[in-house]
Amino acid sequence: MTTASSSAPAAGVTASTIGTWVMETQQPVRFKIKNSPGIFSKGNRDVLEFGSQGPNSRRMVVIDRTICQYYLHDIVDYFKHQQVECHVVAIDATEDDKNLESLLVVLREMEKFGVLRRDEPLIAVGGGVLLDIAGMAAGMYRRGVPYIRVPTTLVGLVDASVGAKTGINFESRRNRLGSYYPPIAAYLDKGFLRTLAPLEITSGLGEILKMAVVKDRALFELLEEFGPELIETRFIGCRAADEVINRAVSGMKDELQENLWEKNLERMVDFGHSFSPIIEMRSINDAGQVALTHGQAVALDVLFSCVLSHQRGLMAKEELLRVGRTAQRLQLPTDHALFNEPLVILEALKDTMKHRNGDQNLPIPRAIGDSQFVNDLTFGEIKTAVAGLQQLNAQLGQAKAADQAASAGSPA
Ligand SMILES: NC(=O)c1ccc[n+]([C@@H]2O[C@H](COP(=O)([O-])OP(=O)(O)OC[C@H]3O[C@@H](n4cnc5c(N)ncnc54)[C@H](O)[C@@H]3O)[C@@H](O)[C@H]2O)c1
Question: What is the pTM of this model?
């Protein structure tokens, strides 16, 4: 009941409470992230676990157009076998396509298909770009219909499928528009990696390196030992592959779980994402720059942050060199023209600070696998770290040359 405030409050009613309500509620979130080998093989029902079952069941599948050549046939066959009507929507899903227009394409198709509010979860099949676009569309359509993530890239497996975030790029800014809209499930099938370009495998390894350096020393040691084999085998057949993926997913899940809505803006998983977002976008948009993939930009940020840490007397020189050598073994870049420009790095930091509500909140490793936050980084330190990164690269170059000379000289 609304109380008119013109007359004196009734006995027992204080003026300050008149006409004020507080809505307070909680929304528990629970979704599974499950390893599901052969996700579209006939005996696997995971992707149909949620939503309507039996005759007249329907699903809309949004898929990255690029991977249709490899998987469309299997997917169509799968739904036919399961007797589920399937409407496939293939969209271009490169970083350049991560925009409002692609979002609208998916939304228009959802409207055409007439997605039911609860029983027809949208199924998104693709890399991080596709998952982010489709998830955002699912969150907007009828103010939210359920969706399922099926990642097909390494970044998708270990990162984009784990959290709640969706998004698109806007005004040359990465993920400037988006939502927190968790899926109802994410199914991980590393079999998709067999068709992934080597560059995209190394990009995913950039995200895994981030997790390793910031919080998981054992994961780092696995990367150090098995990095080249993981690339060569595309994670299929390497005995460390499952443990690497599982540790990366678990670490990410543990970090995100306590802070899914990012109420706390001190986030360890922001490691590698302090300077890289602007640099990644600029490397793609500025002619004359070497374009960086997401994971490559993250890896450069990791290395730069390790240099900052070493300068502060935190990370030991030997550890810094280990991170650099491992990045090299993972075929990740250890240097880029934009990381030689202190003003660009400062600009990137300032933009990141807006995202962190004015604070730096920089995760900085004290040692491999152990980190802290820093809030007092100066421009002077950035300039010194730019020089430090050059020095590190010179040392890495010397070490590589020495290794090559040693292996050329060693008996076959
Ligand atoms: N929502 C999140 O929490 C989250 C987390 C990490 C990254 N992201 C986003 O993910 C994006 C990066 O994702 P990505 O690294 O997966 O890149 P991507 O989605 O751009 O895919 C990389 C390339 O691989 C192709 N591809 C995808 N699967 C393939 C397969 N199985 N075989 C052959 N080719 C295949 C794609 O067509 C594309 O050309 C960024 O936009 C980033 O913002 C989101």
Answer: 0.92
